[in-house]
Structures are given as C-alpha cells and as structure tokens.
Write a structure and sequence with these properties.
It is built from three helices and six strands; from the N terminus they run H-E-E-E-E-H-H-E-E. The protein is of the alpha+beta class. Strands 1, 2, 3, 4, 5 and 6 form a six-stranded mixed beta sheet that branches. The model has no long low-confidence stretch (mean pLDDT 90).
Length: 132
C-alpha cells in the first residue's frame, strides 16, 4: 500500500501542476529498465489514439513528465521480471484510475496505456464515450 501512496503523490503533483494541451487524446505510462534494479515510470500525453496502430500513437507526445520519473525497486522476487513488473505497475495505475485525486484528467481522455518503451502497449482504460 505504501508504494501506491508514493505513486499517487507523484502522479497527483504532475497532474495538478500541469495544464494538459487541449489536443490531448490519450495517456501512456512508459516503463523503462533502469540501472540499480529499478523500473522507471514516465507519463506522456499524446495528441492521437488508435488502438490498432501497434502503439505508435504514444509517439505523438504533446506533454511529458520528462525527467520527473517514478522509480520502483525490482530487486525482490515479486517484481523481478519485466512481465511481473508490468503487471505490478499496471496495478498501481489501475488503482489510481479508480481512486486517484486527479483521475478525471486521465479518464476524460480516449485511453490510458502502459508498456515498456521497447515493447507492446497494453490499454488499461478505453473511454467509449470520448470523441474520436
């Protein structure tokens, strides 16, 4: 639970203090393998979303957290491999989408995705009511 609170605080600070561009269509949580047994998490806003383009939509950044990256230790067995790390971080994002202070900013977009920057994206949330 403590890691969720730290993650939510990081995300709250980013979403509270940044006006998203009007042309934001979707958000993506980019995952990175970092040195020292850490995963890095960055969030970007994209001006397009197409669930069928293999994740290329996430390359159309209009906003990013940049160097403000959230780090998660994966030295323990629970998050040691990328698949488990992806699932764990996806769970944090899912929890935020359910109860985070600024979740409405994410939920008002067309979609929220997550994935390692050199891999496939998973759509965690799809807004069927969003204008396309």
């Amino acid at each position: 639970m403590e890691i969720y609170l730290e993650f939510a605080k990081w995300l709250d600070n980013l979403l509270e203090n940044n006006d998203m561009p009007e042309n934001t269509a979707a958000f993506c949580f980019n995952l990175y393998d970092e040195e020292d047994e850490n995963y890095g998490v960055q969030i970007i806003a994209s001006c397009e979303f197409d669930e069928n383009d293999g994740g290329d939509w996430a390359c159309s950044e209009v906003w990013t957290s940049g160097e403000d990256v959230f780090f998660i230790d994966h030295s323990d067995e629970e998050n040691a491999d990328r698949e488990r790390g992806h699932e764990f971080i996806g769970g944090l994002v899912g929890d935020y989408l359910g109860r985070g202070m600024y979740r409405h900013i994410l939920l008002d977009s067309e979609a929220v995705g997550i994935g390692f920057v050199d891999g496939e994206l998973e759509i965690l949330y799809r807004n069927n009511d969003a204008k396309e």
